[in-house]
Amino acid sequence: MVGNQPEGNAEQKPKLTRYSKEAPVMPTAPLSKISESPLFKELRESVAEETTAVTFACGETIPIASSLSELEDMVPDSKELRCTSCLPIDLRWDPSDKSVEARRAKITFPLEPHTQGNLERLIQDMEPATFGRGGQNVYDESYRKAVKLDPSRFSSTFNPYELGIVDAVAQALLPSLRHSQQPRAVKAELYKLNIYSGPSGKFKAHVDTPRSPAQFGSLVICLPLQFEGGALEVRHKGKAMTFDWSRANDGSGDQPPSICWAAFYSDCEHEIFEVTEGNRFTLTYNLYSVRGNGQLGGNFPWLDPTQLPLYNTIRDLLHDNDGWGNGGLIGYNCSHVYPHTNKSKLNFLLPDNLKGADMFMYEIFASLGLRVRFRPVMSDLGRVWGNPNHGDGSAVLPIVGLSSRWKTWDRIDERFEESFDEWAGRNEKPAPDRWWETREEEEEDEETTEGRE
Ligand SMILES: O=C(O)CCC(=O)C(=O)O
Ligand SMILES: [Fe+2]
Fold first, then answer.
1. Segment 214-245, tens digit of pLDDT
2. DSSP 8-state code for residue 282
3. Per the record, where are the segments of Basic and acidic residues compositional bias (predicted)?
4. Residue-range domains of the chain with CATH
5. Torsion angle, CA of 25/31/36/39, rounded to 10 degrees?
6. Ligand 1 center to residue 207 CA distance, Å?
7. Which residue of 10, 57, 122, 285 has the smallest Cβ count within 10 Å?
8. What are the beta bridge partners of residue 42?
9. What is the mean pLDDT of the chain?
């Protein structure tokens, strides 16, 4: 993300910094007076601190009442508008054996004792859960041991909207941006039913494959069944959040049976530790950023960037005239991954699909009148050639600010691959001279696609 200095008096008028056309190697930002200043040092340090402090995952536990009257009792104060409990959940599926009666292809959660046999039938009817590796769907029990069912084969009475889960996710992970043109909202789309069974069900560290550039996260709902182990750990920038739902939700302890849920940005690495016993039963949803329905209530939860800790630091830096001269560029490496391989989609969706700290930085820059643009920036190509295998075998393409594994995106934009090859000297064409760039002929386009200040 790049913020140009705002238009101001003649001295502060912005001017774009360019990299020399002759530069054949990876451009690095020229040191300027301003980038060496103590204020800039403070900014770098604060950004590093603040961006790791921003939330990347959230979750909750919702108790299940056995009946409508119990549900009413569980909410003693009628003024309590928040949805704090839910009713039992029915799940029905298409059995592989068509002669199976409908009542035998149905489970109610919390599990009714007479439906134990149905649970076993469901597991039999499910399919091995594959995952994407090197652009292909593979089944490898040493990496992922689970069974899954596609939504075309099951339906359930569970609805994450009714329980306020989607609203909670929107508030925690996708608050609306003041400087976007319209409010944004969250759409949750049912993706799979998964069962991780003991003794060795698991899903080792991975990043979910986004189904579209608008997908910003994943939602996992854990239904009440007895299991041991199987904690979900979500990681981002050296921090980890663990959601351990074993015992918590089957109602066998002091607590009522419950629904547990977690949502996280899709580029965050996560892992399901081994289920040692029982069945860990989850519904997964893809989360998309969509246009909101308006603000008729006048109570839309905008972010107020002026209240963010970094706001003052950046404002002071901009007002520090000594060093800016004819203006300049401030570069900020995004802390999450975006669909950087497709320039038109990147510009079309931004800033609406910005996540966590990136969204805060955008708001700060925009509220200070900076013109914000997004650029994929290459870095450290040696890592691509030197270490083609990373973790689960996928090649790593490091991009400053947009560090990503190839496998994260299903379709790699061909133009991007071509430029990448050119840049890396893999063919005869001259290497592109700039990645951290602004091209004169693109200026008009950018105004219409990105000029959202
Ligand atoms: O079941 C879970 O906790 C998460 C599942 C998961 O990571 C996935 O399906 O990609
Ligand atoms: Fe996942």
1. 899 999 999 999 899 999 999 998 889 999 99
2. E
3. 422-438
4. 2-55+302-450 (no CATH), 57-291 (2.60.120)
5. -80
6. 10
7. 10
8. none
9. 72
Residue 444 token pair: 């008009």
Confidence of residue 33 (pLDDT cuts 50, 70, 90): low
Asked if 21 and 11 touch (Cβ cutoff 8 Å), the reply is no
Of 268, 282, 286, 408, which is best to mutate to test ligand 1, by the most ligand atoms within 8 angstroms of its C-beta? 282
Amino acid identity, residue 290? V
Residue 376's nearest CA partner among 402, 394, 354, 358 is 402
Contact present, 330 and 2 (Cβ < 8 Å): yes
Ligand 1 center–CA 173 separation, angstroms: 18
Which range among 20-24, 324-328, 356-360 has the greatest average pLDDT?
356-360
Residue 367 CB: number of other CB atoms within 10 A? 19
Q: Name residue 210's amino acid.
A: P
Which residues form ligand 1's pocket by a CB distance below 6 Å?
194, 203, 208, 220, 232, 270, 272, 282, 284
Under 8 Å between Cβ of 357 and 335: yes
Q: What's the rounded mean pLDDT across residues 316-320?
A: 78
Half-sphere exposure (Cβ direction) of 393: Cα atoms closer than 13 Å: 10
Q: How many CA atoms lie within 13 A of 95 on its CB side?
A: 16
- C-alpha 217/C-alpha 288 separation (Å) is 7
CB of 109 within 8 A of CB of 280?
Answer: no
Each residue's pLDDT tens digit, 167-225: 999 989 988 777 766 678 899 999 999 999 999 999 999 998 888 888 999 999 999 99
| Band of residue 377 on the pLDDT scale cut at 50, 70, 90 | low
SS3 148: strand
Cα-based distances in Å from 404 to 128, 135, 180, 381, 394? 27, 14, 25, 13, 10
In this structure, what token pair is assigned to residue 104?
């035998």
Would you call 357 helix, strand, or coil by DSSP?
A: helix
DSSP state of 277: E
Q: What angle do CA 159, 108, 98 make, to 5 degrees?
A: 100
Interface pTM, i.e. ipTM: 0.98
Question: Which run of H or of E encompasses 57?
Answer: strand 57-63
